[in-house]
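Translate structure to sequence.
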């Protein structure tokens, strides 16, 4: 028997040197909304998606960190901002019911994407990066097999 019971995903945290830029991206592209966040000794913005219980916690990057800002999810050097080379295990996935129009919106905004169709021919998914280089996946899982 597992130690934890009633487990659910509560939130995903992302660290950024520009939490406002990142918040605007997630609001504009995926429809997240700002919610009340605690007052901490560093900047935070909390976002929640209106159609689920999922929240994003955007946290101001510690300026003392020595890690560079940027796409850490790229599988190979030089693959920065190339969604085709997004490392398989380094992304967050969202499902949408308006897959085709969502793809067009990303294209209209000039966001590089890599599309993939599963062998079943119905399931579609795409990969892209947020402004800080965090890998994202969007798929049509809810509508693929109706």
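Result:
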């Amino acid at each position: 028997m597992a130690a934890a019971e009633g487990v659910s995903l509560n939130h995903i945290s992302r660290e950024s040197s520009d939490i406002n830029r990142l918040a605007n991206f997630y609001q504009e592209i995926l429809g997240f909304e700002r919610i009340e966040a605690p007052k901490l000794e560093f900047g935070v913005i909390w976002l929640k998606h209106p159609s689920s219980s999922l929240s994003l916690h955007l946290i101001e990057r510690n300026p003392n960190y020595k890690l560079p800002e940027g796409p850490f999810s790229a599988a190979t050097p030089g693959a920065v901002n190339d969604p085709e080379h997004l490392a398989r295990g380094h992304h967050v996935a969202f499902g949408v019911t308006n897959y085709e129009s969502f793809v067009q919106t990303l294209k209209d905004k000039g966001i590089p994407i890599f599309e993939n169709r599963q062998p079943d021919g119905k399931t579609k998914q795409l990969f892209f990066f947020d402004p800080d280089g965090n890998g994202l996946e969007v798929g049509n899982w809810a509508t693929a097999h109706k």
